[in-house]
Amino acid sequence: MIQLHHYLLISGALFSLGIFGVLTRRNAINVLMGVELILNSANLNLVAFSRYSSTGIDGQLFAVFVIVVAAAEVAVALAIVLNLYRLLNTVNLDQADTLKR
Amino acid sequence: MSISDIIFVVVSFVTVASAAVVVLSRSLIYSVFSLLFTFFGIATLYVFLGADFLAGAQVLIYVGGILVLLLFGVMLTHRLYNLNLTTEKFQPLTGTVIAIAVFISLSSAAVGTRWKLIGEKELEPTTKQFGEAFLSTYLLPFEIASVLLLVALIGAAMLVRRRTDI
Q1: What is the pLDDT of residues B67-83, one digit of tens each?
Q2: B106 touches chain A (CB under 8 A)
Q3: Which of A25, A29, A57 faces B89 most closely, judged by CB atoms?
Q4: Do B106 and A74 touch (CB under 8 A)?
Q5: At A25, is the secondary structure helix, strand, or coil?
């Protein structure tokens, strides 16, 4: 029997893995993947609560908006990362620490 | 333990394990491709939760769009003759401690709280409710989301343009 807290545990694991990726990876694209994991875990939570509690379909609607924002975010972030690579020849976040050149 | 429970356990294991590969693997290509399995696993979990429209949207947008964008990003930010697309970690100890603390607090909250539940609802198609909600209650957020996508489109195209023609 699948309960609500199974989904919450999965999404908690995904969230903490995403936090780990954001904190420890050096490559900017890998950090973006961590952010995607975090957004997906939040979405999973929203959909799970929308199924198991009395909120109707609102959780799933929120998840759709989260997906929209994630798509916009990853497009703009990759544009920024490509510019960073063109300017500094690296996408390692610890080497990209100059404000001006 | 019924067959759907077994499928649920397998799917959730694959999802979490491939998410671990995403953040732990040294190779960027391995990270991107195991992100594929994570996204598919989450789409399957949406199916388990009765969110048919969202499962389709997850596959279309994340697998078809965001994953391809990330792959392009990996390919474009390395020189072609330098094919060891690896990345190393920094501050691993701090990251591990914070991630484990976050997981412990989240899971204790998830298991320990007495949620106000109503039990499982019946499975029914959600697309009709989605359409009605988007065009009535959530009309303004829907329009704002479309404008946001337009702004992101123009902004991304502006940002990666070559600066020779200014």
Answers
A1: 998 988 888 887 655 55
A2: yes
A3: A25
A4: no
A5: strand
